[in-house]
């Protein structure tokens, strides 16, 4: 007999009655859960975590039970199999862990308040009520909530409230759904509500610490996104309402609970009068991501967590598809190209990385699957590649069939490929599984060999890689018709180069549009041809050329010093994506210089050379009516100019600070505010400036302003202020645990603050583990550290600290990859620094 690893195989619930009583005063939850279901065996198990079980009855009679903490089980001995109704009475603590049922803290007019909310993905529903807490165990839920209620408080859940009786709020029965999507919340909330064309009520809810108009942007996007998805999926939104709720304490970014989506405040509320375009775009994509899940994930759910990509990769693609449809002027796919694509290409090149589809059983490992660069970014790119291959008509037809076949049920990856493959008349699974199941991606080498244009593929690595001879089915998207649509072999010959070049009358290229997940290494002749014609290329192609060269340099296949002379060619571009990529490369050069050295001075000069004309062209203040490109470009060039210590820029930024100091620093245009504040702290930073900003941080409920202050304060060069800053890291009244990583990372990236930040995390690791451990964000403290370290000394310290933690469940992969990442960087710097610095000084001296 095979082992029954999933509780669902033993007991299949069909209906839950949840009665939950939450006392905020005593921080105790008491509950009674009634589960009706089908027992396949007599000894069944139900999930619970940290619950004190008072009694268990089966069909009204007490039965014996045991709890087992190691696998979160409540084991119940039944006397027969078949349909049974279990009644379980329990209590549980209400803790500040941001998992299960938990309080969020905030202040309005100096009065401390809290709202209660929930976070059940991946497996925290079991901390709120006993249940078979597996995505496949779908059932219907009747929820009843009681709490120490005060006048005027709002209560929300997946479904509308149907009645209140004796202080108990009863909600309508849900549709058939997974436990991880159950949600409820209550507190003193404000809201804005509208209705879609099809009659779905859409609402945005937030605390009263926000101005009412901060809810407007989200409401508009949410409404139009639902209308878009109903059309695109050809499947109606299945619930009566779609609530969006901002919670002041939130571990992830946002969570797609069915009908009650929860968000970090930063990703829902915004000041419509002073928020930068890129922040608006980000918020819009977060909302559209979660709303994409209402179908993909909620209506049809992965059978098990190994197919998490069905949820996350898909939602990550759809967030762009939908924003592109509702805000076409934003050209939102450009954001995909400057954020997701480089993240995926960088991380996926490290040996040991996970594949998009990963087998998994241990709950601690399930959370570790949410690797944003892989399951999100690479997974989305894989689907973008598929979409380009089959076209939107086949995609939509396939999706419609997929929803019809699996709604209120579960699916596996193969079900999606089959549905789309059938609609497209193509073996989609065969092509896509090479991307889904294998880690890494190929570099396609394009060369002229004996006069023949030849392509070959091999896995691309940054750092050492164990060549498993992996091969991919690569959608080539060449601009020469003679190239095949799919490259399946290791090597292919396209034809005689001279003849092809004449016929096509343009430089040879592959991966036009940059939608396939691979990079290209052109030989010298082909690359020269492209670079000689660079001005005729569109901005995505220019980005791609720079990006691929950058990766090849990271992977030691070319030298960074070969890229340096190309940078000035792109510096005058009016395209924000070209500028973004240019500065990505330029910022990469910083690791090759020692602070305050002559090399550092030369690099500063290079930054000045790259940015000065653009700073003049764009000016410090955003202008009304300027293009999106200009708005998005300005931050990059101002940042570069300040890095270059350009005296006019430093003075201009200071003048803007002084102008606003007496009234309201938050009123400085959000497009430039970060640079103004940081410049002030760095170059004019008295303790008074520091204290004032920290005070602003504590008081403000504008998340983007708070982020700017965080970035400014962590850049302080003053040892005394650095010490003071670290002193606030564990003070939740100043820095919420959900925001701490940004402070840690900011200080670690500051040469003057690195030691203090690094000492803090090493000394207080246990505190961090107690505070945010068990949470999906926890391991990212290691990730961000590894992104910054680049000296042999730090590498040794990093290893000494993290190697002993290698066997911690859920951390193994991250630690071993991060050691490798820092090792590779240290080696690269050693090998390249002289050539790079020479190339830089060659341009400026
Ligand atoms: N389902 C996730 C949230 C989540 C992630 C819960 C990991 C539990 C564990 C949600 O849909 C999501 O992907 N959120 C993102 C933001 C999103 C817009 C990319 C997140 O939280 O980072
Ligand atoms: Zn998601």
Automatic annotation (TrEMBL):
The keyword Signal does not apply. It comes from the Bacteria. This is Aminopeptidase. Binds 1 zinc ion per subunit. Its EC number is 3.4.11.-. Residues 510-822 form the ERAP1-like C-terminal domain. Its cofactor is Zn(2+). It comes from Companilactobacillus tucceti DSM 20183. It is an enzyme of class 3 (hydrolase). It catalyses: Release of an N-terminal amino acid, Xaa-|-Yaa- from a peptide, amide or arylamide. Xaa is preferably Ala, but may be most amino acids including Pro (slow action). When a terminal hydrophobic residue is followed by a prolyl residue, the two may be released as an intact Xaa-Pro dipeptide. GO terms for biological process: peptide catabolic process; proteolysis. The active site is at residue 290. One of its GO terms (molecular function) is peptide binding. Monomer.
């Amino acid at each position: 007999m095979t082992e029954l690893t999933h509780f669902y195989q033993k007991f299949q619930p069909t209906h839950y009655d949840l009665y939950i009583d939450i006392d905020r005063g005593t921080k105790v939850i008491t509950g009674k859960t009634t589960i009706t279901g089908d027992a396949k065996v007599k000894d069944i198990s139900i999930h619970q975590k940290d619950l004190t079980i008072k009694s268990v009855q089966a069909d009204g009679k007490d039965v014996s039970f045991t709890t087992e903490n190691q696998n979160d089980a409540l084991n119940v001995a039944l006397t027969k199999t078949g349909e049974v109704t279990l009644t379980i009475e329990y209590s549980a603590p209400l803790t500040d862990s941001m998992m299960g049922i938990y309080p969020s803290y905030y202040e309005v007019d100096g009065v401390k308040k809290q709202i209660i909310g929930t976070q059940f993905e991946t497996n925290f529903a079991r901390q709120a009520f006993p249940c078979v807490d597996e995505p496949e165990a779908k059932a219907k839920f009747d929820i009843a909530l009681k709490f120490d209620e005060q006048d005027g408080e709002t209560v929300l859940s997946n479904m509308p409230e149907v009645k209140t009786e004796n202080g108990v709020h009863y909600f309508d029965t849900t549709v058939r759904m997974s436990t991880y999507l159950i949600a409820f919340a209550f507190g003193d909330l404000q809201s804005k509500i509208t209705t879609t064309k099809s009659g779905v009520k859409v609402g945005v809810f937030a605390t009263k610490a926000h101005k009412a108009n901060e809810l407007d942007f989200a409401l508009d996007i949410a409404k139009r996104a639902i209308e878009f998805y109903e059309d695109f999926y050809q499947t109606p939104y299945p619930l009566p309402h779609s609530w969006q709720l901002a919670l002041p304490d939130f571990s992830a970014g946002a969570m797609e609970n069915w009908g009650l989506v929860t968000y970090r405040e930063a990703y829902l509320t915004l000041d419509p009068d002073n928020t930068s375009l890129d922040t608006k775009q980000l918020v819009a994509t977060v909302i559209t991501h979660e709303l994409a899940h209402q179908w993909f994930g909620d209506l049809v759910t992965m059978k098990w967590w190994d197919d998490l990509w069905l949820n996350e990769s898909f939602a990550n693609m759809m967030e762009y598809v939908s924003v592109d449809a509702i805000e076409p002027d934003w050209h939102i796919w450009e954001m995909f190209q400057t954020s997701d694509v480089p993240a995926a290409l960088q991380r996926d090149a490290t040996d040991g990385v996970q594949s998009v589809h990963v087998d998994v059983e241990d709950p601690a490992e399930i959370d570790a699957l949410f690797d944003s660069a892989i399951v999100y970014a690479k997974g989305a790119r894989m689907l973008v590649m598929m979409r380009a291959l089959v076209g939107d008509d086949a995609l939509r037809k396939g999706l419609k069939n997929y929803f019809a076949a699996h709604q209120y049920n579960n699916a596996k990856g193969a079900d999606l490929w089959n549905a789309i493959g059938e609609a497209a008349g193509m073996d989609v699974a065969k092509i896509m599984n090479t991307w889904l199941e294998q880690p890494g991606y190929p570099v396609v080498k394009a060369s002229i060999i004996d006069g023949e244009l030849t392509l070959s593929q091999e896995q691309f690595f940054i750092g050492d890689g164990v060549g498993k001879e992996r091969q991919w089915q690569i959608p080539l998207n060449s601009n020469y018709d003679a190239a095949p649509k799919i490259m399946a072999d290791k090597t292919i010959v396209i034809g005689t180069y001279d003849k092809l070049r004449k016929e096509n009358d343009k430089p040879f290229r592959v991966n036009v549009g940059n939608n396939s997940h691979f990079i290209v290494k052109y030989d010298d002749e082909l690359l020269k041809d492209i670079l000689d014609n660079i001005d005729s290329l569109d901005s995505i192609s220019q980005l791609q050329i720079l990006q691929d060269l950058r990766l090849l340099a990271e992977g030691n296949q070319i030298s960074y010093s070969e890229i340096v002379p190309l940078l000035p060619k792109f510096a005058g571009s009016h395209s924000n994506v070209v500028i973004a990529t240019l500065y990505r490369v330029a910022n990469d050069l910083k690791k090759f210089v020692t602070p305050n050295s002559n090399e550092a001075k030369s690099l500063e000069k290079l930054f000045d050379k790259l940015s000065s004309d653009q700073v003049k062209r764009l000016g410090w203040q955003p202008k009304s009516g300027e293009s999106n490109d200009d708005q998005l470009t300005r931050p990059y060039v101002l940042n570069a100019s300040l890095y270059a210590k350009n005296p006019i820029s430093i003075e201009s930024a200071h003048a803007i600070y002084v102008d606003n100091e007496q009234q309201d620093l938050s009123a400085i245009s959000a497009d430039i505010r970060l640079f103004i504040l940081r410049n002030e702290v760095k170059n004019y930073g008295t303790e008074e400036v520091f204290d004032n900003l920290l005070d602003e941080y504590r008081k403000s409920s504008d998340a983007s302003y708070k982020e700017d202050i965080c970035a400014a304060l962590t850049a302080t060069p003053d040892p005394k202020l650095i010490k003071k800053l670290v002193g606030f890291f564990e003070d939740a009244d100043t820095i919420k645990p959900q925001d701490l990583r940004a402070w840690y990372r900011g200080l670690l990236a500051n040469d003057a603050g690195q030691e203090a930040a690094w000492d803090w995390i090493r000394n207080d690791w246990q505190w961090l583990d107690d505070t945010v451990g068990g949470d999906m964000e926890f391991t990212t403290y290691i990730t961000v550290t590894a992104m910054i370290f680049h000296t042999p000394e730090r590498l040794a310290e990093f290893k000494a600290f993290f190697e002993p933690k290698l066997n911690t469940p859920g951390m193994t992969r991250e630690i071993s990859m991060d050691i490798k990442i820092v090792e590779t960087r240290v080696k690269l710097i050693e090998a390249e620094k002289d050539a790079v610095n020479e190339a830089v000084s060659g341009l400026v001296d």
